[in-house]
Amino acid sequence: MLSFYSRLGAVVLVTLATSIANAAPTDVLATVNGTSITQRMLEIYAKQRGVEDLSNLPADKKGQLVDELINRELLYRAATTAKLDKNAETSAELESAKLNILAGAAVRTHLDKQPAITDETLKKDYDTLTKESAGKEYKTRHILVDSEDKANGLIAELDKGADFAKLVETNSKAGVEGGELEWFQPNDMVKSFADATAALEKGSYTKKPVQTQYGWHVIQLMDVRDVTPPPFDEVKDKLRMRARNTAIESYLKTLREKAKIEKK
Predict the structure, then answer these.
(1) From CA 174, how far away is CA 250, in angstroms rounded?
(2) Which among 193, 182, 190 has a CA at the least distance from the CA of 223?
(3) Is 41 left (phi over 0), alpha (psi -120 to 50) or beta?
(4) Chain-wide mean pLDDT for the chain?
(5) What is the DSSP letter of 177?
(6) pLDDT digits (tens, 9 = 90+) for 224-257
(7) Among 228, 51, 69, which Cα is nearest to 134's?
C-alpha cells in the first residue's frame, strides 16, 4: 500500500503532467535559480529524445523529462561557472552543434516550402518503381573455385551424376550453406553471373564456368518466379522518406552549384 507521502508524490506528478499537457509554449514549468524552464523548452527537448507528441506520454515520463531539463540547467550553470565554454575543444563542439541545428533548420524550411507529398504522388512513384522492378527473380546455388580448370572438372563430375550439394561441401570456397543464394534479380548480381543464370532452365547448371571478380562459378538454377512488389501501404512511409530525401538532395545540389567549393 502506498504511504501518504507516496500518494502525495503521485498526485503532484499527475498534476504537473496535466498542467504540462494544457500549457502554452511560454508557460513556466519550473525555475532553477531564477531561470525558467518553459513548455516550449520541454517540447524541443522531448523531440530530441524521440517524443513527437507529449500528449500521449505517461504522466511519470513527462515528469522525468522536466527533471532532466532541471538537471541540464544545473550542469549548464556549473559548466559556465567553471568557464568550460571557453575551452577550445568545447568551443569547437558548440560551434559544430550550432552548425548542425542551423543546417537542420534550413532543410526543414526548404521542405516546408515544397508541395505537399500526397498519397497520390506517392502512388505514382510506387507505380513507376513497380514497373522498373518488374521481371523475374532467381534462386540459385553455386560452387565457387579459384580456377577455370577446377570448375570444368566439377562440371564433368556433375555430368556423370555427382551430387551438386556434396560438390559444394567439398570444393566451394563460398561460405554459404549448400551454396544457396537468396532470391535475386539480375541487377542485384554481377552481370556475368546474372546473364548465365537467366539462360538456364530450372534444375540445370552451367556447362561452362562463369567468371566474376570472386573466382570461377558453376551455377545451378533452383527456381524462378515473377517479381511481386510489396503492397503500397506497406512501403508508403519509405516512399515518403525517399521523396523527402530527393528534395533535400536537389536543394543541396542547387546550393553547391552556386557556391565556390575548393577541396584541399
Answers:
(1) 41
(2) 182
(3) alpha
(4) 89
(5) G
(6) 999 888 899 999 999 999 999 999 999 999 999 9
(7) 228
